User: Fold this.
Amino acid sequence: MAVKSDPGRVSRRALLAGGALAAISAGCSVVPVESPRAPPARRRIRDLGIGIGSLTPGRWNAITDVPGVRVGHVTRIEGEGPLVPGRGPIRTGVTVILPGDDVWRDNIPAARFTLNGNGELTGVSTIDRHGLLETPIFLTDTSNIGRVMDGALAWMLDRYPEIGDSAPVPTPIVGETWAAFLHDAEGRHLTEEHVREAISAARSGPVEEGAVGGGTGMLCYEFKGGIGTASRRLPAAMGNYTLGVLVQTNHGRRAQLRIDGVPVGREITEGMPYEGRKSKSILIIGATDAPMTPVQLGRLAKRMALGLARTGAVSMHGSGDLLLFFSTGVRVRRGAVSMDVPVWNDEHISVAHEAAVEATEEAILNALAMARTMTGIHGNTAHALPLDRLPDIMRKYGRPIPGR
Amino acid sequence: MPAERTLRNSITDVSGVEVAHLTVAEGDVQTGVTVVMPCPPSVRHRKFSLGAYAAGGGLSWTGVEVAEDFGTFASPIVLCNATSVGAAYDALITRGHKRDPELPVDDGWPPIVVGIDDGYLNDLRRRRVKHDDVLAACEAARGEPPACGSVGMGRGLVALGCKGGVGDASSAASVGKDAFVVGVLLAANGGAPRGVGAARVVSPGFVAIVATDAALFPAELRLLGEAAIRGIDAAVTIGGEEGRLALAFSVTNTIDGSLTAPPGRLYEARRLADDGLGPLFDAAARASRAALGKALGDAAVVTGRKGRTVEKAPADVVASIAFTGR
Assistant:
């Protein structure tokens, strides 16, 4: 069974059998996760000279440009060689988005959209029935959903002694994409402690992208992918609001990838990963401080799917493409009987649609641009998008990068 | 589908459906797990059609996105308390990996876990129910009529101001010349007797698992679930904010082996005319009410946290709800 550079596809069952590679790896000393040569530096798509859309990004060009939003990652990269279910190699993590300081006491409006349902996003009944988000948002790999739900709930039980006593028990919002190309999924390898760590690590400011947090073991158009983010300012005349998007990519086929309209994926056909039948997915989380209603946020959630489409995806059957959008511009205090809320004028929502599309498109490209090549179970390798090839390809299709 | 059949007034009257309860009765911890399997574990790579109906406040369940977008499921349905959802999910992931490491959408994934708040009698914060408990419950599932009342998920439930619990029942229905059966397993938590107010549990929720051998598609199954909920609504008083959830599935029109089927292979399904479905909806309402009657009627008194004791419902309350199911 050839594994290294064979462009043919190999079933996951064959990969798990792993016999030949186990024999090769057993004789190796510690093998670095990346190539021993210093990998080329990763840069965000905008820093490569490729501008997406026409609106202006926020200060960090990240979901954290929405005031009060914090992001934290815990990343586990340990071990290499053949898969030993329950032991490793480990390529996973969790990313947490804290929409505010206390979203359980101060719920915020939210809505969701299922573009293609082959995925899991837990805890959505509160969003569906009340249009409210009451827990942080956690992104991880498929097999760790239960672990992360448990860890998130443990954190909430500690913080709020009334939960499970005089107050109802919330269901944490946990989303997943499938990491088993690189990661010992059956082993899971996340605990309650990791979830607490991610929450403690949550920060404002620039967001780490690529193979980190929930995106550690993930792909993107069959390159290495993971976490990406971007933001856009809404026009000052509308109130100086910001809209940001964070993605956990894992979706797409190589030939589908488009960068600013250019079919880059068709031009780079080497470095293809193997995969089983399991298709992959994308989680897209949007945020704004513009005061939107749940109905309006549902519309914005749908627009993020158009941003995804700009990067070439067709939302395949096996892809869990799940989208969620929240607004920090309205707070619904738990227990308040009634309150005054501002409501955005629908006639002025189109620019938010545009911002949602652009920020999603750019966030996905950032995940691609920032992720490094990674080797995982059985020596399976997901190759980083070769950034040095972009100038020639973009020029070939009549969209030269200025100055390159 | 045989025209004559002896029904045992159980959800297990629907061919292949299996149930297990795991009960935890340990002082302040009065809780449990109830598992409903759509088929015996020997059946592999079979997708079932599913329709979900939800009313009132949020009852949380997992596997929502596959259910709503594909209309299918292929997982045990686990009812557990609201702080054990993560543990139950993790257990179903363990079980799923053992069945197929790819966790395919036609065999074990995504897990369907419904969380119910039994915190009036149960110390939820202790999170006593663990991964291994849920695995054991899945292993114990059988096609025999299960016990009812203060067992499994029903251990700590409070309904109509009295001891609540789980109950199951079935009802026959004919559509044209075909005879079908609708089975319901109900977890009853909340509500009040008709015309009477009652002490409220913190987060009430009625959860009905509805099974049938009628050839129904997801949209029709949603209506079947709605009928089961309306059957309960007609029997008791339920506040608008109280949660009601029905997950309804059919054991026919299943999709087998879809991930390995050759391109171009079409499946054969049967469709019943919409205007003939009335008897099935009536059967769902009857079975649901009968299940509620059995849940209340069999519910042993339980003393739980904070020394709270909840007595069994009086005979006249049980009688006013119960149906023969025929």
Summary: Confidence is low (pLDDT under 50) at residues 1-32 of chain A. The domain at 12-396 of chain A is CATH 3.60.70.12 (L-amino peptidase D-ALA esterase/amidase).
